Amino acid sequence: MEFRLPEIGEGVYEAEFLNWLVKPGDTVKSGQNLMEVMTDKATMELPAPFAGTLNELRVTPGQKIKVGDVLLTYTPAGATQPEPEPERPAASTNDRPSPARPISQPVTTTVASGNGSRPGRAFVRAAPSVRYLARKLGVDLSAVHGSGPDGRILVEDLSEHVQTSGAPAKKRAPEPAAQFGKPGTRIKMQGLRRKIAERMVQAMRTIPHYSYVDECDVSELVRLREGLREHYARQGVKLTYLAFFVKAVVAALKEVPIVNASLDEEAEEIVLHDRYHVGIAVATPGGLIVPVVHDADRKDVGQVAAEIERLSGAARTGKIRLEDLRGGTFTITSVGNIGGLFSTPVLNPPEVGILGLGKVVKRPVFDARGKVRPADLVYLSLSFDHRVVDGAVCAAFTNAIIRHLQTPALLLLPPRPAGAGAPAAS
């Protein structure tokens, strides 16, 4: 029998195969994870909707696969050999013909086992392929939390539910990646690295970049964060500088809306967004991923810090969801925790702006009275789409970020309710 790629997300019909978690000859149980695939930089595991012995694995790492493609063949549990499969109906106590068996069997067992498709139950949003997998896995869809639009249940939701509910699905620990390479070897351009390459080439070929660098005295921010770190830690929140930078960027975007935009080339229109979804670049063993803090203007500093920690952890463990990677309107990338004063970041299309953060360094500076004092400085390096944003706008936007970073206590104020008017720019 054949196992084909099901619909793996809302509007997602193609993926890249990453690797097998099983091998030919393995006996697998229903719900056991078979493979890892990647769509739009999100990695997910596909569970087996069957129990049986694997015969042939049909795809290889790096291969593009589409919904409906055959991924593997298997012998169902209880059958001795795959060859005599046509004679199986005669040996079976069932009177149904063989061709109808793959379709009708899940429906019949669904009704008998009460797995969630009984008449009269509440409506559940899920694609037909997801419903089919749920029936095969014996999963009650009403008990699964849907992460798709309007609560739609996706394949990864089923996989996560099976694992957390104590089913026999096994998670193979990820092998440590050699991030810096090994001399004398070749690395196949596949998976996340290929996705990154495609996006970077697109950005550099189609977008005229304009870079702008300035320094910012964040001495007050350093003192404030140091004083609040233990308070937030007791609440289970790791308070980082990045949370303050996100809030400062959002405040600046509200003052300079043209930077919170994207270019619709086909319509020849600049689309100014009224939502503030800030992407945070995260270095993972497989490459750079940019999960998004959605509606950052409606979250306080603590909530932003908690969301950054959640997204970063999910990205590094390969558990990031598709919806966590979509919808960004501006991106922040940082090399400060590694080193370096500043960089020239590449835009994340279709956004028109990106902020790069260097490390916070201690430097002597002159105060207003001409006296030398120690200060904590950080370099802000920004890149903009010069088709949309001009130099004067770049300077105005950067100045706004600096102004908000130098009054960090105001960034702790609770977010304004949705629909409330924005404060006037000072």
Q: How far apart are the first and last residues' alpha carbons, in Å? A: 68 Å
Oligomer: single chain
Radius of gyration: 26 Å
What is the makeup of the main sheet?
7 strands, mixed
- The portion of residues assigned to helices is 25-40%
Secondary-structure-based class equals alpha+beta
- Return the string of H and E elements: EEEEEEEEHHHHHEHHEEEEEEHEEEEH
The low-confidence parts are 87-121, 167-178, 422-426
Instruction: State the CATH superfamily name of the largest domain.
Output: Chloramphenicol acetyltransferase-like domain
Second CATH tier, the architecture of the largest domain? 2-Layer Sandwich
Q: Please identify the top-level CATH class of the largest domain.
A: Alpha Beta
- Kindly report the CATH topology of the largest domain: Chloramphenicol Acetyltransferase
Beta-strand share of residues: 15-25%
What sort of overall outline do the alpha carbons produce when their principal axes are compared? Answer: elongated
Mean pLDDT: 81
**Tally of DSSP helical segments:** 9
Total of domains = 2
Q: How many individual β-strands?
A: 19
